[in-house]
Design goal:
157 residues; alpha+beta; Aminopeptidase; five-stranded mixed β-sheet; 5 helices
Amino acid sequence: MLTLRDALPSDAPQIARFIKALALYEREPDKAVVTEDDILRHGFCEHPLIFTVMAEWDGEPVGFALYFFNFSTWEGRPGLYLEDLFVPEEHRGKGVGKALLKHLARVALEKGCTRFVWQVLDWNTPAIDFYEAHGAKVLREWLTCRAEGEGLLRLAE
């Protein structure tokens, strides 16, 4: 039986494992350098920057969703940004991903969010099809801009 719950500090090792498994799935295994301490420091502090929902099937972890809140200046209201949602392959097709999305949509509504946003890689057709089938609109006209590493240092000069 599927249950969803807010993550606890004791879930930090599993969250880090899920993030690394997602990076492997997304063909970037060396990019995920997150540690348990990172999860604890940013998710379980006085003013958390991230929030995580754990999915369990009969008490076994079968997925997670990690999110945070942003703000729409045009609408003057918060938004919910889904950073990662992952369900290992052996647990897909059981409704875990759909349950996590529905749960976060309810969180967004409860917090007065005007939107619920996430990204998907352009080659991940199964995920795109899944999201669109559940009411999401893929905004193909928006491009992500990112400054990191050396580029971030240059920008900050």
